[in-house]
Amino acid sequence: MTDDEYLVQLGQHIARKRQEAGFNQSQFALRCDMDRQNMSRLEKGKKNLQVITLRRLAKELGIEVKELLDF
């Protein structure tokens, strides 16, 4: 799997987790201190994540970071 493919799959996984938690993209972006456009880019695999961003996402979803990376 290429790096680009990995980012797309990670973004799709994050989007599924967000939807399972009952957040729309705008709500979740606000909770994670991001704007909706960046959240959209992240979920489409067009944005490489920083570790601190993964930590924020996991915290708002009420899960461990490793759950975001396990897909």
Which stretches of 5+ consecutive residues score pLDDT under 50?
A: none
Q: At the fourth CATH level, what is the homologous superfamily? A: lambda repressor-like DNA-binding domains
Look at the structure and give the CATH class. Mainly Alpha
The count of strands amounts to 0
Molecular shape: globular
| CATH topology (level 3) name | 434 Repressor (Amino-terminal Domain)
N to C succession of SSEs: HHHHH
In DSSP terms, counting alpha (H) and pi (I) runs of 4 or more, how many helices? 5
Radius of gyration: 11 Å
Query: What class do helices, strands and sheet pairing give?
Result: mainly alpha
Task: Write structural notes for this entry.
It contains 5 helices and no strands. By secondary structure, the chain is mainly alpha-helical. It has one domain (3-69): 434 Repressor (Amino-terminal Domain), CATH 1.10.260.40. α2 (25-31) crosses α3 (36-43). The longest helix is centred in the first third of the chain and has 18 residues, at 3-20. It is globular, with a radius of gyration of 11 Å. The two termini are 13 Å apart. 15% of the residues are buried. The mean pLDDT is 96.
